[in-house]
Write a structure and sequence with these properties.
The structure is a single chain. With 209 residues, this protein is mainly alpha-helical. 53% of the residues lie in helices and 0% in strands.
């Protein structure tokens, strides 16, 4: 699907400037790059962008009328974000890969507790949130494709600050896109049916990247 592939392609384009001749990891592309925590790459800026995306999604899902086109899309993005959080957390625990800040070897998988590099939960979150909007509005509002820049920015930023390997952020983008597509194609929301308006209990959402 063109729209979903675009998100992953945007991440690939961003990472292409960080290419190295000698690389490793599962895709043969992983390598450390020069550490850069300046300007827009600063970790606090990354956290601010991620928090803004999450809060906008939660706010839109809760307060925009779910019977409208925009409200339904926010509901889908919220579903995708929560599903992605669960999926990436499970994958981090299963693969237990060390981050570039912890090792110079991109093949350090299955290292136990404290190793949670694969995949990138933050990139996955952003990809999952923007995918339903791109799929919903791409035909009548082509500018919505610009939302793909959010996961692309975060992918590059996480690599530059040694939070993730290149394959971590690509895997995160792929997971987020896949669950964003899934949520978009559902006829009804998953999690908002558990809120008081839906006759069920309120749920909480917490995430560590």
């Amino acid at each position: 699907m063109k729209a979903s592939r675009l998100v992953v392609a945007a991440c690939l384009c961003g990472l292409s400037v960080l290419h190295a001749a000698h690389a490793g990891g599962p895709l043969g592309i992983d390598h450390t790059v020069a550490y850069d925590d300046s300007g827009i790459w600063n970790r606090n800026v990354q956290k601010g962008v991620a928090a803004g995306v999450a809060l906008t999604t939660v706010g839109g899902a809760l307060f925009v009328d779910g019977d409208t086109r925009l409200g339904r899309t926010f509901d889908q993005s919220f579903d995708a974000m929560v599903l992605t959080a669960g999926a990436t957390t499970a994958m981090k625990l299963a693969f237990s890969r060390k981050r570039p800040s912890q090792t110079n070897d991109p093949n350090d998988f299955f290292q136990g507790g404290g190793a949670q590099s694969f995949p990138s939960g933050e990139v996955a979150e952003m990809a999952s949130v923007v995918t339903p909007f791109i799929l919903e509005y791409r035909h009548d509002h082509p500018a919505v494709y610009a939302l793909a820049l959010l996961p692309a920015y975060d992918a590059v930023a996480r690599v530059k600050t040694h939070g993730h390997w290149q394959s971590d952020v690509l895997a995160g983008a792929a997971v987020g896109v896949a669950l964003g597509v899934y949520a978009h194609h559902r006829a009804t929301p998953i999690f908002l049916g558990l809120t008081p308006d839906g006759g069920g209990p309120m749920i909480g959402y917490a995430r560590a990247f």
